[in-house]
Design brief:
It contains six helices and no strands. The protein is mainly α.
Length: 117
Amino acid sequence: MRDDRLRLERIVDMGEKLLDVVDKRGITAEELLSDTETQWLVSTPLLAIGEQTNKVSQELVDSHADIPWLQVAGLRHRLVHDYEGTNWSIIAAVLFDDLRPFVDQVKGVLDDLPVED
């Protein structure tokens, strides 16, 4: 569980930092669709979040089946293996509609995990 805790903490940290940067810079969906630098800025943390999500234990995934673990990990795989084919409209929807609820769900799991010494 310690590894899961660390991975979940990283997901929350990276997700909150990304959301903070998007807010502070006033990034819009339109900017994300058209600006390569913004795409790079957003894709790197999404890759990191997906990587950590992909490594969460199957036990934790099974016990929190309401969280879209596979979709988040799948997004990472798509970004890594088909970056040129990335549909930025989907990334915009993830960033502006799905990321905050996902981070909040992960925070809830963290709150429920036993703290280990």
